[in-house]
Amino acid sequence: EVQLLESGGGLVQPGGSLRLSCAASGFTFNTFAMSWVRQAPGKGPEWVSTISASGGSTFYADSLKGRFTISRDNSKSTLYLQMNSLRAEDTAIYYCAQVTSPNWFDSWGQGTLVTVSS
Amino acid sequence: EIVMTQSPATLSVSPGERATLSCRASQSVSSNLAWYQQKPGQAPRVLIYDAFTRATGIPARFSGSGSGTEFTLTISSLQSEDFAVYYCQQYNNWPLTFGGGTKVGIK
After folding, report:
1. Which of the residues B1, B96, B98, B103 would you substitute to probe the A interface, choosing the one with the greatest number of A C-beta atoms within 10 Å?
2. How far is Cα of residue B43 from the mean position of the Cα atoms in its chain?
């Protein structure tokens, strides 16, 4: 059974940073692309970023480029999202998701809440 | 960016009735479209991918159709557990984009 467990969310001040982690199990992690998808309160999902299985290719939502960095450690079956210069509009539940080719989301974690507020 | 527009925003249906949800893309996405179901406090769950292929474990009462810019999700006979919010997502082009959702409620 695929399991994705996010962590690292919390309350951060505007301009601050957070690093989210997603521990994966139940599948061969290094053969799947992975993504982060966020959902602001009362809103629909918003794709954030995708990283290829090897980590050699990354893709970002245009609005986030330069502030967020996706990475992975295949030896630890863990996905990361480094978030810098956080803004109030980044407040959301952040989900990690297993990507099935070409690019739909087969399995999702339970999410971690990021709140950006002073 | 491809904009996905879902209609209606809210749909009230009686148990046992059919529900028809629409999703329109601002440009062609071929058949690269998925549908997700989300219940309160839960992550989305994939129902349909490649426009009409049911994901593993999804009941046959869920069906998807369409290609290009017009897509439909049909729930043939609504069960109590189907009352939820439904989202479409295109994966034909970067950035990947979702629709705004259709909330299916009890009539």
Report:
1. B96
2. 15
What per-residue confidence (pLDDT) applies to A97? 98
Give the model confidence (pLDDT) of B61-73 as tens digits.
999 999 999 999 9
Residue of B nearest to A103 (CA): B91
> Bridge-partner residues for B77, per DSSP?
none
Q: What three-state secondary structure class fits B67?
A: strand
A contact residues 63-92, partner B, Cβ 8 Å cutoff: none
* Distance between CA atoms of residues B2 and B95, nearest Å: 8
DSSP symbols for B3-50: -EEEE-SEEEE-TTS-EEEEEEESS--TT-EEEEEE-TTS--EEEEET
As a whole number, the mean pLDDT across chain A is 96
Peptide bond into B44 cis (omega under 30): no
Instruction: Report which of A12, A2, A4, A1 is spatially closest to residue A111, judged by C-alpha positions.
Output: A4
| pLDDT, tens digit, 9 for 90 and up, residues A4-52 | 999 999 999 999 999 999 999 999 999 999 999 999 999 999 999 999 9
Following DSSP, what letter does each residue of chain A receive, concatenated?
--EEEEE--EEE-TT--EEEEEEEESS-GGGS-EEEEEE-TTS-EEEEEEE-SSS--EEE-GGGTTTEEEEEETTTTEEEEEE-S--GGG-EEEEEEEEETTTEEEEE---EEEEE--
Q: How confident is the model at residue A102 (pLDDT cuts 50, 70, 90)?
A: confident
